[in-house]
Amino acid sequence: MTITAPARPATEKVYRTELSPVSFLRRSAYVFPDRVAVVHGEWRITYRELEERVNRLASALVAEGIEPGERVAYLAPNIPALLEAHYGVPAAGGVLVAINTRLNRDEVAYILEHSGARMVFVDHELVHLVDGSDLPTIRIDDTGAADDPYERFLAGGSPERFEVPIAGEEQTIAINYTSGTTGRPKGVMYSHRGAYLNALMEALESHLRPDSVQLWVVPMFHCNGWCFTWAVTAIGARHVCLRKVDPTLIWELIDREGITHYNAAPTVHLGVVTHPAAHRVERGLTVTIGGAPPSPTLLAKMAALNFTPVHVYGLTETYAPYTVCEPHPEWESLPDAEQAQLLARQGVHNIVADPIRVVDAEMNDVPRDGKTMGEVLMRGNNVMTGYFDDPDATAVAFAGGWFHSGDIGVMNPDGYIEIRDRKKDIIISGGENISTIEVEHAVCSHPAVLECAVIAIPDEKWGERPKAFVKLAAGQEATERQIIDFCRERIAHFKAPAAVEFRDLPKTSTGKVQKYVLREQEWSTSRSMT
Amino acid sequence: MTITAPARPATEKVYRTELSPVSFLRRSAYVFPDRVAVVHGEWRITYRELEERVNRLASALVAEGIEPGERVAYLAPNIPALLEAHYGVPAAGGVLVAINTRLNRDEVAYILEHSGARMVFVDHELVHLVDGSDLPTIRIDDTGAADDPYERFLAGGSPERFEVPIAGEEQTIAINYTSGTTGRPKGVMYSHRGAYLNALMEALESHLRPDSVQLWVVPMFHCNGWCFTWAVTAIGARHVCLRKVDPTLIWELIDREGITHYNAAPTVHLGVVTHPAAHRVERGLTVTIGGAPPSPTLLAKMAALNFTPVHVYGLTETYAPYTVCEPHPEWESLPDAEQAQLLARQGVHNIVADPIRVVDAEMNDVPRDGKTMGEVLMRGNNVMTGYFDDPDATAVAFAGGWFHSGDIGVMNPDGYIEIRDRKKDIIISGGENISTIEVEHAVCSHPAVLECAVIAIPDEKWGERPKAFVKLAAGQEATERQIIDFCRERIAHFKAPAAVEFRDLPKTSTGKVQKYVLREQEWSTSRSMT
Q1: How many CB atoms neighbour CB A362 within 10 A?
Q2: Which positions, given as ranges, span the membrane (chains A, B) (predicted)?
Q3: What is the DSSP letter of B365?
């Protein structure tokens, strides 16, 4: 069976081509056909092969009946099949829905249902998550062998250039579901245009070059791997896949594959840089940090290993990174602690984004004093086109012509923003706002602390007070009293934790602490005690 | 007098901002306000100051009556005022017409007339070029002092943020007139969108970083400095101005200002790398070469100085660079001559361009054999929106939905193109096509030759035959016979020059050899001789 479709045709305008990241794969396959594009264990896929596999996927999807705009779901770790989906699904005219693999079966079923996915590709280790679904399902054994059902699916397509033209660059390329810690997950729509511009931006901000080698630590299902699925391909660099975030394996690959770049949340980076195999890398690594601000400890350890951090901030709704903490050369002469403090700020709008704002309840900009808290707003090419099939939620998020992030931050005199909290996390104690992040920074600067999370707990007198959950570093000890006293020396007394509990922190698949788990525990306990 | 206009407003879509390179200046002024943006002799302009000067220019232009879409002309060397025009004119809603300063008064008058320029800014050394014009004229003394008429004009504007919103990103930002060696010059229109995408591409392809320092060798009036006027600002790097291309001064600035990047045609590069002051630069320089292919000699000299060449090719109609000769690591192990041959090819479409084509008269792609000649075609975001006020010429150039470059090239088996000639330069000898560039390469590989140009001369028997004009390297000697014999050992006998003349080559302001000058001389002589 061969399905033919025209190559991406000329629009009527000679001077206009609709922006789409699919063109990046086409170009790299044209320019660097024999360069290794993807490494997965012993398996190496050149750019020519990658494009052929993508053509096979796209043409087989169309043969399967996928119509322009229809959704195709994936449940997979960071393997070649999921990278291929980032090109093959849009080349088929479809919309990629890469689902978080840490969700449970009900959550997955909700997303499959809500997105209206027409079919689902699922990694062999995750098949239980689609049990009971009546969607056409293709299992990915991730072997690359002819009897792998995914490979059989590709074999049904054609390696010839195949691309269903898009109607326009604002068409949806992917839907990424939010984590849904409050209410049902929402489907965040990315456009071809947004994905294209973000990819160019990431390549610039992370200094990607054709000889770069990206290790796939951040999940590709998470904001399409912060759009690096497209950025790394755009520049003709190499993807190194990783089924599982395992610091031992990460260090093996850093050495064996000559890794130059990887992205992760601070907790994951911490696991890497504190691992026994950690060592200085002479060629240097550029590591992008997102999901939470890097601690001074993390930055110091990175410097010792010759890692250059790029600190970014954003949300699923902003294609992941919206801001970057652009470093200034003058900072290098400052004391380490001060430098770390500057680098831990979320920073400024990236090169393709509009200026970010921090506003009060009336949408007036807060003063640039580094103190007045307000909600963070964004807009422009770096913002989702809306929530899929949810005009009400979109209207709320876009109220007043700006995307409301739900993050509370301050604007510093130099125009760099600093996130103080999620709107729902902020602690209101005796009428004062307390940023849980500020308290966490104080707790984490205690030398015995590896990581911590602070939430509001109910308090009869003050309404709410902060409680810290602390994981100590290996071999370290500290008491509740010591931690509290340590904090009271550093921040206002009313901001210091009222209680400290030592435990492992519950985390999402992307390494973010699940504060709602801690909160549920505390508030249900408290309530039952009243 | 204060004119106010809204800051670039939200479009109706929260997720869309019209692409415009003016946003790059806004961002760099926001992120790096105290960083030096522009160096001009002893004068240093920070990004904050640059934005304020641009706001002044834009608001003063509007106060002067410039309406959206109206043209503002400039005649200036690479000085701060011309860089400012690249932001201030579009921020006023206007269209920049930066005129080639080597033109004569009649040619300038034609462009002022044809473009419908509403006013003209002219450098104090070029005032004679607008003598007799009745347009409002602002003289630029290039002193930065309060009594400089240009500075007085800025003083009339306001430093507050000022920007007339554009109706859409396809609106014209600049008109660049072709050199007009055949017929009248044509006005090539660039859009905000095209300029924006090209700037991001240049930053990626030339590896610009925020700590880069660009020396302004290529004229800013030439395709807006190959769009580097916007690219360097986008990344927050530094512009170093240069009134005059003088290798002595270039070497002084390379050392004094820590230059990391400059762009030029090969003849200019040759002047730099063969200059007595030339020396190895430890930090390295990235030098973009366009206008003609780099010779093996030039590449070897660059390598010795630690210069990394980026060879690009394009036309005024393609925002300058359309292709880049993307190097492959494997080439590094090849013998120097072979490497140079590969690097001298024009290469592949850049990261924001559509694939380039080489076609026969019926617009069918020629075989990828490195031999069959055809016309080079381009399309997409890297192509002009058309010729200003010349729908007929636009229709001819865009025939069949592609831009016809008028360049004759071949497609190599690896997909890299090689330009063999301008359509009008190609020599037809006994029914065979001879590429003047191929003959030039043969002549230039003679050790005594510094540079050369080959044109067709009339021949009774063969119709046309090649003649070489040669400039010998300092202190070198060679005879006509020696050059011809040398060539006959390297290329087919019928391609070797029938005659050789030793002389300085006539050049355009951008360092391109003016073959038409040589041709006029030869053909008028010949004609008068028949």
Answers
A1: 6
A2: none
A3: B
pLDDT band of residue B180 (cuts 50, 70, 90) is: low
CB-CB under 8 Å, B355 with A27: yes
User: Among B11, B12, B13, B15, which would you mutate to test the A interface (most chain A Cβ atoms within 10 Å of its Cβ)?
Assistant: B15
Residues A362 and B220: their CA atoms lie apart, in Å, by 45
Here the ipTM equals 0.89
Q: How many CB atoms lie within 10 A of CB B329?
A: 10
Res B6 pLDDT > 70: no
- Residue-wise pLDDT for A70-122, tens only, equals 999 999 999 999 999 999 999 999 999 999 998 889 999 999 999 999 999 99
Q: pLDDT digits over B71-121, tens only?
A: 999 999 999 999 999 999 999 999 999 999 988 899 999 999 999 999 999
In a domain, B96, yes or no: no
Contact B348 A30 (CB under 8 A): yes
DSSP code per residue over A248-300: HHHHHHHHHHT--EEEE-HHHHHHHHTSTT----TT-EEEEE-SSPPPHHHHH
Residue B425 buriedness (CB in 10 A; 0-12 / 13-18 / 19+): buried
Query: Under an 8 A CB cutoff, do A194 and B15 touch?
Result: yes
> What is the domain extent for residue B446?
425-530
**Domains: count for chain A:** 1
Q: Is A424:B40 a contact under the CB 8 Å cutoff?
A: no
pLDDT of A92: 98
Cα A435 to Cα A426: distance, rounded to the nearest angstrom = 6
Task: Count the neighbouring beta carbons within 10 Å of the beta carbon of residue B477.
Answer: 9
Residue B274 maps to a domain: no
B148 within domain boundaries: no
Q: Judge contact between B229 and B255, C-beta under 8 A.
A: no
DSSP label at residue B455: E
Residues 6 or more apart in contact with residue B490 via CB below 8 angstroms: B442, B445
Distance (Å, whole) CA B478 – CA B476: 7
DSSP codes of every residue in A371-431: ---EEEEE-STTS-SEETT-HHHHHHHTGGGSEEEEEEEEE-TTS-EEEEEETTT-EEETT
Chain B nearest-CA distance from A404, in A, is: 11
Query: Quick check: is A197 in a domain?
Result: no
CATH number at residue A458: 3.30.300.30
Which helix (H) or strand (E) segment is B471 a member of?
strand B463-472
> Treating both helix axes as pointing N-terminal to C-terminal, what angle do B296-305 and B266-273 enclose, rounded to 10 degrees?
50
